[in-house]
Amino acid sequence: MQQIVIGTAGHIDHGKTALVKALTGTNTDQLAQEKARGMTIDLGFAYLNEQITIIDVPGHEKFIRNMAAGAANVHIGMLVVAADDGIMPQTKEHLQILDSFSIQGGLVVLTKVDIVNDEEWIDLVELELQDLIKNTVLNGVPIIRVNNLTGDGIEAVKKHLLHIAKEVKIQIRSNEFRMHVDRVFTKKGFGTVVTGTVDSGELHVGDKLELLPNKVNTKVRGIQTHGGNVESVGVGDRAALNLANVERTEVYRGTVLSNPGIIAVTKKVIAHIIMYPNTDWIIKNNQRIRLHIGTAEIMGKVSMAIPKLKKGQNGSVIIGLEIPLSVAMDDLFVIRSYSPMKTIAQGRILDPLPSGKWSELKNNIKILSPDPEKRFHTMVLREWKQPRTLNSWRNRCFRKQNVIQQWINAAGLKIESKSKIVYSNNSLKISDEAILSLVNNIYKRDSFRKTISNEAIIDQLKWSSVWVTFVLANMELEGKIIQSSGRISLSDYRPEITVKDQKDLDFIQGLVDSSGLEPISLKVLIQRSGFKPGRVNGMLHLLNDDNRSEKIGTDLWIAKKYRDEILKYVRGHFEKNKLLSVSNFKDIIGLTRKTAIPLLEYLDQSNYTQRDGNNRRIGSMLDA
Fold first, then answer.
1. With 506 labelled, which of 27, 75, 299, 591 sits at a CA distance of 20 to 30 A?
2. Higher-confidence residue: 69 or 527?
3. 603: Cβ contacts below 8 Å, ≥ 6 apart
């Protein structure tokens, strides 16, 4: 059963803790002293029922940290204001933070009405509160008065919380487990224990986890929630985890626990910032800020593509972090000024792992939308040269696979059936044209060149091998190219060979033939022919295409007929023996070790032989 979380907010001494005790019977102030050395998860937390958790944060600084920590999991906001004080500066600041995290509903509780004898004063405070919550996530919610002395109003508060809890729609971003650590301690006989609120996924006793940002591997020995041992926890649960093979010093407040290899560790993010409408602070280029994200408080420096951000404005920036941070795409955060500390803005992570030069980063700042679906589409189109798989996008966006699939369908994108890479038809068209242009340019520079290797295409275009393979397969289906043995040629291309060209080709082939079983180097062929290096290289490739010569290693060549003769000798050896040593091979072909080794490496790479220590076994190409 998924937990619904209620977050209290309000000025110091406005009665939040007393209200939580009246609602739940739990005094959260005493828990810290009474259970500090126990395996408890109740510090600052109480339970309205089995499904509803209340976060109570008494102090202002703790509120800032803990509200940011519970950002992704707080569903209902309860703003608490004392009738005698009315609206205070921290009331406004805490309301802004509630507003930052898209609370789904809530209410305002006007406490301590018993110590105010002036009814008109209470009415005035209520009117001011109605005005304060306009245009916020709490706009139009009930304002319930509570008499701390008699308890009048408590049942109304509880009834309303239970009602709106039924309306909460819990949004699960990812099925991968993640939890932000808000407390860590050691317990005798158990070892290291951490506590936090499960942000996503499920966790079971015995599961393997990764501690980030330090990338420490661990295993879950035991789990507690609601004060008892359990076998598993899920989204919204408060959990205490007993971790194996983890020193107390390796985990701290701000550490993230997740399934291994899922969450990014970074020192730079692209983020979208929304300045609060009543802040006097201005964010400028290179300004230091305090970032409250997850349970971490971290210093950062802002790099901007615009001059500055003032109150009420929004824009995307790069935030350079002073220490590594573990974050996921679309994580929410709060920004506080460096000094004096004031809450000045809210934000969202657009890209946790930006890369490239400043010009590229600046462009990404401009094109990446705060809307997750639009941003996904942009990223797919932007990264067409190195397309990601469906699973990779699921991890990168920290979303469930069905959500990514919906985004793919809505944008008209495609998924390649074998590799599962995500691409667009336009990217396929652009890639097709780029390969045709590259091959035609190579033909113009080297009229003897008929085929081009896949590796050369990958190297020159800087695309992923998976993408090149897919594009070439598609081009072959359309009849634009011919593929053979890792090389391609245009279907309609025929080299124009003059009489002189043919004479030179025969001369080069003669030099290769004269070398017999011993491969001849490109350097020697250039020296003996007197031709320019480019011409010799081009003629050798044409001879290779015509199945007359074969390339051995990086710059050695052998006549095809002598290559076949070597294969005949090797096959004959394996008919009588299981292993082929270097010495055996030297004796078979009558060459030195220096010449034999490149030939053996060629046989290995071509799967004619299979290396087994210092020996060779018969390979699949000879065994067929």
1. 591
2. 527
3. 570, 609, 616, 619
